[in-house]
From TrEMBL, chain A:
One of its GO terms (molecular function) is methylaspartate mutase activity. One of its GO terms (biological process) is anaerobic L-glutamate catabolic process. Keywords: Cobalamin, Cobalt, Isomerase. It comes from Kitasatospora indigofera. Residues 369-390 are annotated as: Disordered. This is Methylaspartate mutase. Pfam families: Met_asp_mut_E. InterPro entries: Cbl-dep_enz_cat, Glu_mut_E. Gene3D superfamilies: Methylmalonyl-CoA mutase (3.20.20.240). The keyword NADP does not apply.
From TrEMBL, chain B:
This is Methylaspartate mutase. InterPro entries: Cobalamin-bd (IPR006158), Cobalamin-bd_sf (IPR036724). Gene3D superfamilies: Cobalamin-binding domain. Residues 10-147 form the B12-binding domain.
Amino acid sequence: MTAFGPFVARARAAGTLVVQPRMGMSEPGRMRAGLLATKDAAATTVGTLTLDSYTRTGEVAAARRAVAEGVPLNGYPITSYPSGVTRSVLHGVADDSFPVQVRHGSARPEKIFSALLAAGLHATEGGPVSYCLPYSRTPLREAVDSWRRCCELLAASRTDGAEPHLETFGGCMMGQLCPPGLLIALSVLEGLFFRRHGLRSISLSYAQQASTRQDEEAVTALQAIAAELLPDVDRHVVIYTYMGVYPLSPGGAQLLLDEAARLAVRTGAARLIVKTTAEAYRIPTVGENVRALESAAAVAAGERRSPPGATPDTGIRAEARGLIDAVLDLHPDIGRALVLAFAKGYLDVPYCLHPDNAGRARSRLDHDGRLHWSDPGSMPIGRSGRTPAAPALSSSELLGALSYVQRSYDRRAFRTSVADGVSVAR
Amino acid sequence: MERGKAGKAGLNVVVTTMVSDSHTWNLVFLQLLLEELGHRVTNLGPCVPDEVLAAECRRRRPDLIVLSSVNGHGYNDGLRVVAGLRACPELRGTPIVIGGKLGIAGAEDGARARALLAAGFDAVFEEAASVDAFRSYVRSLPAGVLL
Ligand code: B12
């Protein structure tokens, strides 16, 4: 029996950041080896079963066929193996000193929730919005119904030894170019949805964006709003290392991970999900994951939490709170409120193609990497009078915005290596 | 519009991914790129089931079908999907191409591309560096298709 929330709470009380990989491979033996390597890493870790895309989209037959034919998948197909196989993957690995979470990306995760419970696990993640809009063509209303049932199923697994844990994925819409106010609002709204449907141990996500200053303000705002609206649950904040187009150079990838680890510690987040130097290219190896976990833990150990008031308030907290309140006012049932909010465009994720997303809002990156609304669409966000209507982006401008972080960190790594080279030459 | 009648008004292009892939920035990018080249794009969005893809293509009779996948299942899914599309008599001669990150282990020696071509694709464009090649391919199309 593993308890995810209490494990993270103990590490936080001890002043240690918990680090976690995104790791999943199709073959059970390799999956087990990956979990063991995560457990043995020189860091305070929790384990991950990241599921493959067939399993995420409910294509169980395709996943089974791939397993039978030996086609390598991009994750672990939990619903294609009998629960005994997954239990043997976890046996002697998952325990109170090493909780394991299932990470998926499914708009209708009933089978996944049943499979993880059958394997003896109680921790997973997602949400009715964040695993629908960027991950499927499922109507939002259906995803909300499915996630309600799944929350109830997970909550019902509560026993003396295990408090089920659910993490919101709302802090990472589309991986990039979503301004922080909306990320925070969605993360908190999904947290409220989870609590409404029985969960008592919840983590709230926030994905690193393109400006560290802006991210620090955003996570501080997320902590404050979560304390106001979710005071009565076991709760922590989890930071995702950058989820957009990743640096190409190993040095750039490392600097970006270092920055995420510092962001997590400074803002009082309890857990960090790492990315590896393979991110821009392919599924990482176990070794690459272990190196990312260990280096992030080492950077975190050298950083301190910022004192209260250290981050100037540019209005992110008010924007997020305004969005949350506007959604909650739409309907007493939070699931219905979320569906109505997207139908009215009160929530509108930039560049998201899902048919239930209004698609009127547009974001832009400042010269220093801060994200802003160039057009908030119908969201209840003040349009600053000076902002002219957003001109449509060209394909190369879009690529430019998507690869801003990649470029900046690759350049930084190149400069560092040149500087090192010079000092060595001397 | 009937195939081959696109002429100066540009091609009718279907941009799509396959059933297991939810990535969409690639689709948004390809749509903008093709529109800038003067073509009309129908973007089918994420996780397109095989039946939906075939039905949309049969209905629209596009001048070009562009499949994009980056989740690592593109090779496996592409082999199946192109066979299904080529089995539709209306699509037997339609240019169909695929690109993106098609396997889970990064770049390889070209065996993947050869197998995809043999399965029925007209061209394979792996990774970002292939965008220029794609542009020239598309430029070469109208004449090829029109005559
Ligand atoms: C953003 C992102 C996401 C977002 C996507 C949001 C959205 N709706 O689009 C989120 C967080 C939701 C996500 C989810 C997942 N992702 Co993802 N994601 C990325 C990331 C970081 C950037 C992709 C991106 O937006 N690029 C911007 C676009 C414009 O570029 P592009 O897609 O690379 O396409 C370029 C070229 O490939 C080329 N191209 C693409 N298609 C075509 C087609 C033609 C014809 C041509 C000519 C060219 C071409 O042109 C583009 C411009 O240069 C990449 C890693 C990276 N690159 O840094 C991983 C990555 C693509 N994801 C990956 C995976 C596996 C997943 C998941 C399955 C989760 C998992 N197991 O880790 C899920 C997807 C679930 C599913 N059902 O498929 C892997 C794929 C592994 C592989 N192929 O070996 C990557 C490489 C990360 C990794 N190293 O593990 N992801």
